[in-house]
Amino acid sequence: MKSTMQRRSFLKTTALAGGGLVIGVNLFEA
Asked: Confidence band (pLDDT; 50, 70, 90) for 3?
């Protein structure tokens, strides 16, 4: 149960980091 919550939190953090990276690259190239 606990591992599932940790995995979900990890995926959320990874998604936020990935999204921020994509936005940063788009702004840099603009």
From this structure: confident
Quote the tokens at residue 25. 């690259």
Cα–Cα separations (whole angstroms), residue 22 to 11, 13, 16, 28, 29:
16, 14, 10, 10, 11
- What percent helix, strand, coil does the chain show, rounded to 5? 95, 0, 5
pTM for this one? 0.59
Q: Residue 18 belongs to what domain range?
A: 1-30
Q: How many whole angstroms separate alpha carbon 16 and alpha carbon 13?
A: 5
Counting the structural domains of the chain, the total is 1
